[in-house]
Amino acid sequence: MTAAPDSETPPALVLDGVSVVRGGRVVWDEGDLAVPAGAVVGVIGPNGAGKTTLFQLALGLLPAATGRVEVLGAPPRRGNRRIGYVPQNYTAALGQAVRARDLVALGLTGTRFGLHRSTPDERARVDDALRRVGAAGYADRRMSELSGGQQQRVAIAQAIVDDADLLLLDEPLANLDLRNSQEIVTLLGELRRERAVTIMVVAHDLNPLLPVLTDAVYLLDGHPHHDVIGEVVTEDLLTHLYGTRVRVVRTAQGDLFTRSG
Amino acid sequence: MRFQENWFQILQTTFMQHALVGGSLVALTAGLMGYFVITRQNAFAAHALAHIGFPGATGAILVGAPVTLGLAVFCVGGGLLIGLFGKRVAEREIATGTILAFATGLGVLFASLATANASTTTNVLFGNLLAISRDQLWTFGGFTLLVVAALAVIARPLVFASVDPAVAEARGVPVRALGVAFVVLLALTITMAVQVVGTLLLFALVVTPAAAALRLTARPGAVAGLSVAFALASVWVGLVLSAMIDLPPSFFVVAVAVLIWGTVLVATRERRSARPAAPAVGGHDVVHAVPERAR
Description:
Helix content of chain A: 25-40%
Distance between the termini of chain A: 44 Å
CATH class of chain B: Mainly Alpha
Number of strands of chain A: 11
Distance between the termini of chain B: 52 Å
Shape of chain B: globular
Number of domains of chain B: 1
Oligomer: heterodimer
Helix content of chain B: over 70%
């Protein structure tokens, strides 16, 4: 298992002169960027800037009004099995009817019509995904019985069970306490090391993610931009981005911290 | 209310035989659909569709059409109408409730225009297993076959679209079309079930058995099996009781269903509170074991 993608690998996401229109309103335009394969990318910007919209574009759920989009070297399309997706407020709709293992299995066979018994190979892949996210201990529990952090792990297991090359995680740290939040971040780092997967994470708070981020896509003044993380975590840029005074503090561990005030 | 000595002979009469076969078909279909109704968190829609069927039935009497046809047309139509009101639960519930009220009003209007005798209206509201005709059995058989076959085909994507609509849509599952298909299947199920337990008691046969099953297990196959078993038990025991004691079978069917549900509720509540608390944070590969301190 190698982490470094070879130079032949096309970028995970390319925007070329892209604009997005929703309900007659331009969400953002002049999108020109290329997210390299294997990056761990924070997607940041103020509320309503179009972070989730960027994911919908990549998933083929929303067409670009102008320009060209490429995902993993091909035009976006619905049902792309190479993308794993965990939407925002993931746990909101989950009832008591599904177990963690059933939910992960849906990521593998949920699109299949007709009666099929799951094969031993499929069951092994589900177990493997649950183990990789550290959720094997509660695989047979109902989703409604799990904590927010546990539910988020299961959701990530569902996203990786089909060996996706690109993971799109929308606010995976929302509603998690400090410890759970850090554990999810550690998990993302581990996933990245195991396979040359590209991870894009929408987050309103960069701080907990900084240890694993290599790049950032930031939505500023109505346009998406891409840069390596070191260039993004600067006081001027973050202050401009969030419209409030942000300071960057470098700690002894070499970590970058951003905070307002 | 009196015990009927000849209850076993009563069970062997033609109308009881029809009731047993018809009731079993309905229990099979309702038990299966109940699982999906609960995964979709759609119990209110099931309740509402039954009421929307009421004017269908009385309207059919008014124009001299078969009651089953009237029920089917109104349930399917009402289901599609509710389906139009989008995904937002709050919006959908208000629309559903409003349609429900209007439908019930229409039902009363049709009933009075048709000068239907009181017993016909009562049959629609409360069901009458003992009035199922041979022709209706064929219709029931067709509906059951259709619903079970359709569920077999769409079960997996339907569950995906129900518990995880955003991901399912991204994965290419036709979420909207499945929603429409589900409502049509539900309408067909309700069309049958109304004739067993009536519009007012229907909830107990379409939702309650599945709810009880889900408290006992979360394995999808086991839930479906148990749910069907509970629905069948309700119908069979209900019919035998109504043969023994000359009271409406609807009451007994619903009473058995509720009794099963109540028993399961109490039993699982004790078991759940006896179970030790889950580990606070899911450590890596925690084995599902009882912590020492809880013993």
